[in-house]
TrEMBL record, chain B:
Protein name: Ni/Fe hydrogenase subunit alpha
Protein residues bound to Fe cation: C70, C427
UniProt-annotated binding residues for Ni(2+): C67, C70, C424
Keywords, in A-Z order: Iron, Magnesium, Metal-binding, Nickel, Oxidoreductase
GO molecular-function term, one example from the UniProt record: nickel cation binding
Residues reported to bind Mg(2+): E48, I377, H430
Pfam families (UniProt xref): NiFeSe_Hases (PF00374)
InterPro entries named in the record: Ni-dep_hyd_lsu, Ni-dep_hyd_lsu_Ni_BS, NiFe-Hase_large
Cofactor(s) demanded: Fe cation; Ni(2+)
Origin superkingdom: Archaea
Length: 284, 436
């Protein structure tokens, strides 16, 4: 057997070598949020080691050497788009990044600020807070996940994300690979954690069965029913309808069920469709 | 004397190393008339609007999302207001565990602010990471103290950002004795590094140019022990009011350059924060706290915002002692308790506490089913914004008078003043509301 060798032209060879030698550049940015994802990234215990293996180009919360206009290999973006200025910045970040990672509930699901999405008129909500006074600095718009405006390459969920997941994401990029999304619910980890089922056995409004795993069912281990902060399970397997049926059997009202599912799920395209199967007709 | 030539306003589009998004805009007319605006463009999240009609238990889970730096402060203050609304009295042990969690937040927030956000300005670095390359022991201390605060919040609240374990009526699960004993050990092992921040900041003189008279507001702590829980707010002008009267005493107004409103106390601008606490209640510190306060008294000028760094640094040391005391008290009377599930009835509740950055006020009104009818929150950053703008104006005027004409030099100084307040921009914006 003979081995086939491909001859790489000299100029291309150099380019590959430099690409490998160079540390990946990273930017950490925030739109409208609580800054918790950035705080979590900034305080992961290995941050100093990680900082040595990457070039952090921008990290507004930590460094005054930050800029939206620098090119980066990987951009981590937290926050929802809630003003025109947020949108301009998001577009600028997308333009300047090879890979964009949406981080946390605000970027991925619109955040708790989207709790009323689909229920109440944004203008009314805004005027309830600011009155008719004019704020000239930027125009406020209804909170939306960043995916409504730009392509998101990877999703790092959580409110805030888990430390080990942040390290996993950064590590895969350093190895030249990419992170895999968790596509199974909190219940799976909850069984492994050895918890009793708060929904079935304690009649608590636990959202574990429709919520993306990755937290090792922390809250349930503390006897606190899941509030859904990691967002609905991806790939259209968040069965809002089945869970709503069990909630009804447990005595919860339609209004309460919808409100609880909407804290972190209001922008989910299937939420209303699936709830309609249970409650019928138009929502009350 | 150098002539000042500003062809365009000095602007800092986005102040780094603070929580949230804000900028500074300085206009200088005729080389003397100075106008300064702190532009707040962090987007609104309308917390007080979105919780209306929702179950109050869910609302108290959402409130900490106002801000990650002071999530525990928002969680506990929201819980206290909600419990006051329905007349729910928690156990003494619950109150103590909450106070411990709150102090954990204070330690973490002060450590992050002092070492990673404020100190790089004084040592001349753009950030803590590059500062750490030359000063590894400072960064090591910073992370150790930050972790200490985070661990306290994690064992009490289940995690250090958005503590779901703290609920109306108590906790899902109370911390075990083993965990509490671990906390005691950690606190004892942190005592020798508790004043590192203070030792750093007192190497630098306060900029006298930024001093001007101001009113301070702080919560009178319960049991005469310097702390964060209380019922009555005192002011340095000799006046005072009760927590449930805060809406009649603190007013807010909308300004065009900010999504955060500006507040006033009985018509006057004021400030709040560690410097206010220490100015009003230094006599309630423990012996070591009092000693630090006396030793570094030259650096504590109530009229100089830069003193807030010093006040926070003294508090950092004090709260480590206080956390140990409370943990030992919890261990001495440890009871296996489950939380009291709330029974709802119509009512309105108020709570005011001392968050890391100053007074935090909540009002929650619920109907008989436990749904929120009305909510009102005023955060420390919204309270001191107006005073902060005045400080920046005074500083700019005095620099211009001295003939300093380098915009980057001026803006660097202004940013340092902004950081000394430890502003929490997310907080100030997310909860602003219309005047009553």
């Amino acid at each position: 057997m003979t081995m086939k060798t491909t001859i790489i032209p000299e100029d291309q060879k150099i380019e590959i070598k430099e690409e490998i030698k160079r540390k990946p550049t990273i930017g950490v940015y925030a739109l409208t949020s609580c800054y918790g994802c950035q705080l979590k990234i900034a305080t992961v215990s290995k941050i100093i080691e990680i900082a040595d293996s990457v070039d952090i180009e921008s990290f507004y919360m930590l460094s005054s050497a930050s800029s939206m206009h620098k090119k980066v290999d990987i951009a981590f973006v937290e926050g929802s788009v809630s003003t025109k200025k947020d949108l301009e910045e998001l577009l600028e970040i997308r333009k300047n990044s090879k890979t964009l990672v949406g981080v946390g509930a605000c970027a991925l699901q619109g955040g708790v600020q989207s709790w009323n999405h689909g229920d109440k008129n944004y203008k009314d909500l805004f005027e309830n807070v600011y009155g008719k006074s004019k704020i000239e600095i930027s125009e406020a718009i209804e909170a939306k996940p960043i995916e409504e405006y730009v392509k998101v390459d990877f999703r790092l969920p959580g409110c805030p994300p888990e430390e080990e997941e942040i390290i996993y994401f950064i590590s895969t990029f350093l190895f030249g690979s990419w992170p895999e999304e968790k596509d199974y619910p909190v219940c799976q980890e909850c069984r492994f954690a050895g918890n009793i089922c708060l929904l079935i056995e304690k009649n608590e409004p636990c959202l574990g069965s429709i919520t993306t795993a990755g937290c090792n069912a922390r809250c349930i281990s503390y006897n606190v029913p899941c509030i859904g902060c990691r967002g609905p399970v991806p790939n259209d397997v968040a069965w809002f309808d089945s869970l709503a049926k069990v909630f009804v059997e447990k005595g919860f009202t339609e209004e309460y069920i919808r409100e609880r599912m909407k804290i972190f799920g209001s922008h989910h395209p299937k939420l209303e469709e699936l709830l309609t199967k249970v409650f019928g007709g138009e929502k009350k | 004397m150098t002539t000042i030539k500003f062809t365009q306003p000095i602007t800092v589009d986005h102040i780094a190393r603070i929580e949230g998004k804000a900028g500074i805009e300085v206009q200088i007319k005729d080389k003397k008339e100075v106008e300064v605006k702190v532009n707040i463009f962090e987007g609104p999240r309308l917390f007080e609007s979105i919780v209306i009609g929702k179950s109050v238990e869910e609302a108290t889970a959402v409130f900490p999302r106002v801000c990650s730096f002071c999530a525990a402060a928002h969680k506990i203050t929201g819980l206290l207001a909600a419990e006051n609304a329905i007349g729910l009295q928690v156990s003494e042990q619950t109150a103590k565990i909450r106070e411990l969690m709150y102090i954990g937040d204070m330690i973490e927030s002060h450590a992050l602010h002092l070492f990673l956000l404020a100190l790089p300005d004084f040592l001349g670095y753009p950030d803590g990471i590059s500062m750490g390359k030359d000063h590894p022991s400072i960064i090591k201390t910073a992370l150790q103290l930050k972790d200490l605060g985070a661990i306290i919040q994690t064992i009490t609240g289940s995690r250090y950002i958005h503590q779901e374990n703290a609920l109306m009526g108590g906790f899902g699960k109370i911390p075990t004795k083993t965990k509490l004993n671990e906390v005691v050990n950690l606190l004892r092992n942190s005592k020798d590094i508790s004043t590192v921040a203070l030792e750093q900041f007192v190497k630098y003189e306060l900029w006298e140019e930024v001093s001007s008279e101001r009113i301070h507001l702080a919560l009178e702590p319960k049991n005469n022990i310097y702390g964060i829980i209380g019922e009555k707010i005192k002011a340095t002008d000799g006046t005072s009011f009760n927590a449930n009267e805060y809406r009649e005493n603190i007013e807010e107004r909308v300004v065009p350059h900010s999504f955060a409103k500006h507040s006033s106390y009985r018509g006057k601008r004021f400030t709040t924060g560690a410097l206010s606490r220490i100015t009003l209640f230094s006599s309630l510190l423990n012996d070591k706290g009092k000693e630090l306060y006396q030793n570094y008294n030259n650096f504590i000028n109530p009229n100089n915002p830069l003193s807030n760094n010093i006040a926070q640094a003294i508090e950092l040391s004090y709260f480590i002692d206080r956390a140990e005391e409370i943990t030992l008290e919890i261990l001495d009377n440890y009871k296996e308790e489950s939380r009291i599930k709330p029974t709802f009835k119509e009512g309105t509740g108020y709570a005011v506490t001392e968050a890391p950055r100053g007074l935090l006020a909540y009002m929650i009104s619920v109907n008989k089913e436990g749904k929120v009818r009305k909510a009102d929150i005023i955060t420390p950053t919204a309270m001191f914004l107006a005073q902060k703008e005045v400080d920046l104006k005074i500083m700019t005027e005095s620099l211009v008078k001295k003939g300093i004409d380098n915009p980057s030099e001026i803006s660097q100084k202004l940013e340092t003043i902004v950081r000394s307040y430890d502003p929490c921009v997310s907080c100030s914006v997310h909860v602003t509301k219309l005047g009553r």
